[in-house]
Amino acid sequence: MKSLKLLLLALLCLPVVGCVTTQKEANTVSASTEWRIKSLEESFLNFREQQRQAADEDQEALQRIESRLAAIEGELTGLRGGSPAPAKGTVDAPAGETWVGDLKPEDDGWVEGGKSQPLVENDEEKPWAKLPEPPAAPEPPAVIPEPEVIDRAQAPKPAPAPQTAAPAPKPAPASVPASSAATPKALYEQGYARYNAGNYPGARTLFDDFLAKYPNDDLAANALYWKGETYYSEKDYAQAILTFKEVTGKFPKHDKAAAALLKIGMSYDRVGDRDNALFYLRALQQDFPNSSAAGIGRRELSRLGG
Length: 306
Fold this sequence. Notes:
There is one protein chain. By secondary structure, the chain is mostly helical. Among the domains are: 180-234, Serine Threonine Protein Phosphatase 5, Tetratricopeptide repeat; 237-306, Serine Threonine Protein Phosphatase 5, Tetratricopeptide repeat (Alpha Horseshoe). The chain has eight helices and two strands. The radius of gyration is 45 Å and the shape is elongated. The relative contact order is 0.05.
């Protein structure tokens, strides 16, 4: 009888164990699926960002070519608009005379305007007339007297160097004050100050440090949001989208979630994904209709025709 009870108890426990195992497997599959979706989205966003950068580079190259062509056309126009080439036989001719088209040698000169001009010889026509003179003979080298040899024992001894006092010991350095980032707020403010100064990589480093040390602090949502803004300011819209989505995923009811939805929509617009841009801007209107970000979002929707 006792063994029968144990058997029944074991049979009753089997479904419970199976449920626990099934739940663990479901959680593992869910985490794996979420990671794969995030990885695929990141790859897609990076691809779109590369396409946008290539299009910008092509546009800049086209503008440079067009500018160069315009400059060449201007130069050609200036050349065409100049004075015409002088006509042969009419340029700078003396009054009442004309230049002969081709100079014709005669026995004692050349013909110009019907007049015979004597040939004038000059040194340039006779290179042998200017031969270089031979160089002057070198002067004999100067005689340098041999130095006087002095007996080392008789040489004067140098005066001893004056003794100087030993340097005074340096004072001990003053103690360095403790870091101003001793508190979560101080660390956050340092990162925010770097962001405002335009040091986006430095600000991102401090925000990452803050999130690693104080993930549950009241300023964690702000730190994560401004980390996304560092990417947005660097025009790295793919990483900006992923970071702003972390804000909406981890802090869906926080004030920064509204601003993050706005920036997600704007980032998708920057990479040329109009459909996703409209989706997140509309989600902003539904979830945070009275926020200041929603007002900006309405203007973006109007601009995109949504």
